[in-house]
Each structure stands twice: as C-alpha cells, then as structure tokens.
Amino acid sequence: MAIFPQTRTAEPLLHRDSWTKTRPVVRLPKLRHIGPNWYASVMGTAIVASAGAALPVDVPGLRGACTVVWALSAVLLATVLTARAGHWLHHRDQARAHLLDPAVAPFYGCLAMALLAVGGATLTVGADVVGVRAALAVDVVLFTAGTAIGLVAAVVVPYLMVVRHRPAPGTASPVWLLPLVAPMVSASQGALLVPHVAAGQGREALLLACYAMFGLSLLATLVVLPLVFARLVHHGPLPLALTPALFLVLGPLGQSTTAVNQLADVAPGAVAGPYASAFGAFAVLYGVPVMGFALLWLVLAGAMVIRATRDGMGFAMTWWAFTFPVGTCVTGAAGLARHTGLEALTWLAVALYVFLVAAWAVAGARTVCGVVSGALTAAPVPPAPATARTR
After folding, report:
1. How far apart are CA 49 and CA 378, in angstroms?
2. Per-residue pLDDT tens for 365-376?
3. Which letter does DSSP use for residue 385 in this model?
4. Which of 181, 184, 186, 183 is closest to 139 using CA atoms?
5. Gyration radius from the chain CA atoms
6. How far apart are CA 162 and CA 173, in angstroms?
7. CA 235, 236, 242, 247 torsion: positive or negative?
8. DSSP string, 117-143
9. Parallel, antiparallel, or unpaired for β 25-26 and 14-15?
C-alpha cells in the first residue's frame, strides 16, 4: 500500500533481447514502487532524536536513547538513498512518471528534509559518538545538499503544478506543503551552524539567509493552506488512506516556531544588539500565536483521523505524517519554553514528545511488517474514497 496513487504498468520480471544467448536483465521489481515518500521514515526517525535532545527537562537515559535513534536514522537515510538510486537506475519510466504526477511530485521535498533532519541530529546528538568536528563536517555536507535540493523543489514542484500537472479544482492536498516547508527546515537547521561560522560578514549572512528561507516558506504556506482548508470544507474529508496527511499542516507551523527560536538564540553573536533583541522578541511574539493555531489544527486533524479509523482506515505510509510534523511542534514548544520560562510550555513539549515516540514506534513497526510481507513494496492500490457517515 502506498500513500499516493500510481499508474499500474505491467513490468516483466525478466527481459531478453533477440539474442538467444544474452544475459537476462533483472528488473528489481521491489524497487519500482519505492517513491520519494519513503524519505518520510527518515525524517520521522531523525526528529525523535532531535526533539528528545531539545526537551527542557532532564530525563535519565533519554540522551542515550536519542543517540541510538540518531544512528538508526543515519542507517535509514543510507538505505533509502540507495533504494531510490536503484529506482532511478532500473525504473526511470516510473521515476519520470512520479515527477509528472501531482500526487507524487511534492514528496521530493522529503528528500531535502531527510538530509537536513539527519544532519541536524548528527550535530546535536551524534556528536556524542563521532565527535564535534566530524559531526560538524557531516552536518555541513547534509545541510548544503538538503538546502540546495529544498530550494530547487520549492520552485520546480509549483512550476510543474502550473504548467504540467494542472490539478483539478478541489483537489488541494496537504502534501502540497512538503516542497514549501523544506526551506523552513533549512532555516532552523542553519541556526545550528551559525555559531560555527567565523564572526563577521559570513556569520551574519548565514543568519539572514536563514530568516529569508523562513520568510519564503512561511508566505508560500500562507498561499497553499487556505486551498487545503477550502478543499475540506467544500469537498468533504480526504480519502481514508490520505487522512493522516492532515498532520502535515503542523510541519510549517511547528518548524517556523522552532526556526525563530533557534535563530534568536544565535542572533546576539551575529548581528548588532538592537536587531538581536528584536529577533528575541519576535521569537515569542510569533511563536506563541502560531503554536496556538498548531494545537487547534492538531485537535482538528486528530478528530478527522479518529473518524477515518472508525470508517476502516488501515495502515499506509501516510502514518509517518504523525511523526515529523509533531516533532517540529515539540522543538517549537521547547524553544518557547526556553525563551519564556513558562512551565506550561515545558509540559506541552513533553506531552507532544510522548505522542511523537508512540506514533514513531507504531509507524516504524507497521512499516517493518509491511516491508517484510512485501505489502509496501508491491504495486500500490488507489485509496478508497471516504465513506460518508450518517450518524
């Protein structure tokens, strides 16, 4: 089962040309249906480590557990990158079809966010294992690659939607936010690198570049989010398998709150005093209202998921939407708790983290079972339409 519809194409497992003695060409059918959505499992795993390290409470053993999860996210990133390389190598027709499919193309933003998430977790958690110098080198490489890919996706995917995809009215989906939120992840992860840049023009340029990426992602989100809500109001709930994607809306909300708080932390060493103080005030003035809206959307999306579950929603890769977006709300609440000293925000971060770990454990276990059984690597079945409830 996949989280987006794909074209069914008959694919022979073995191909021979007209020569009777040529070697057979193995088509690796299991890789054919490994789409860019699989990077969501990497993002969801890395955020468990990063969010755990960001909690404003001291929990015995938590740091060690986060280190283990970070290592797992690094292994997952290498595995999915390899699988996706095989997908492009052996199934180029399907890869090109993904780019031209409005339901699939937005997931290319997940590649950028997976690189950024693992890079940030390496610097914040993995440094305990590999050392600060090696962790910094890894983060610089992954941050550079993830930011470049994210900025390209933020332009190319909307461009394709306008000139090639041409989605029908009323088909707006939360997955449209994925390529747009990638620069916001770069903004928050870039804050980790600001102190490591030599003081002066370079450090200030990186800080302001992060704020620029925060702005472009935020404004793009404000364009798309009304389309998503209008689709829900005028056309009803999403198909059952896609209902968890409603949690994706939390991504830009929590990530933007995380970004402004982390950038405010490093601003004093990068810009002049008045601006640094303004950035600190902005972190709270922006973050508190946005976190309030994030909690509103969390309840709304949760109610829709409960409704879909009662209507028979089964497991799909969309369940990974319960992880990374919620994790950004954890880091956002933790940042606000750090800047305000409010204990209520500390407990909010802890409660959201408990939900995040539970969701990650369930999604991870179900994904492993799906891979072992072959259900998640088989040809996808289009999601069933939502069932109207009369009671």
Report:
1. 30
2. 999 998 888 888
3. P
4. 186
5. 21
6. 15
7. positive
8. HHHHHIIIIIHHHH-HHHHHHHHHHHH
9. antiparallel
Give the contacts of 297 (CB within 8 A, at least 6 positions apart). Answer: 246, 249, 250, 253
Mean pLDDT, residues 35-51 taken together: 95
CA torsion, points 49, 254, 309, 111, in degrees to nearest 10? -60
Please give the Cα distance from 122 to 5 (Å, whole number): 34
Q: Which of 130, 189, 199, 129 is nearest to 328 (CA)?
A: 189
- Evaluate whether 367 touches 316 at the Cβ level (below 8 Å): no
pLDDT at 13 over 90: no
Per-residue pLDDT for 309 more than 90? yes
Tell me if 63 sits within 8 A of 128, measured CB to CB.
yes
> Which residue bears the tokens 């999403």?
238
Q: Which amino acid is at 299?
A: V
Tokens 């340029």 label which residue?
A: 205
In 3-state terms the chain splits into helix, strand, coil percentages (rounded to 5) of 75, 0, 20
| Spatial contact of 178 and 161, defined as CB atoms under 8 Å apart | no
Amino acid, single-letter form, for residue 32: R
Question: Phi and psi for 163 in degrees, rounded to 5?
Answer: -100, -20
Question: Could you give the CA distance from residue 331 to residue 328 in angstroms, rounded to a whole number?
Answer: 5
Which amino acid type is present at position 224? V
Structure tokens at 316: 């799909």
Cross-strand partners of 26: 14
Residue with tokens 């497992």: 13
Beta strands in 295-352 (DSSP E): none
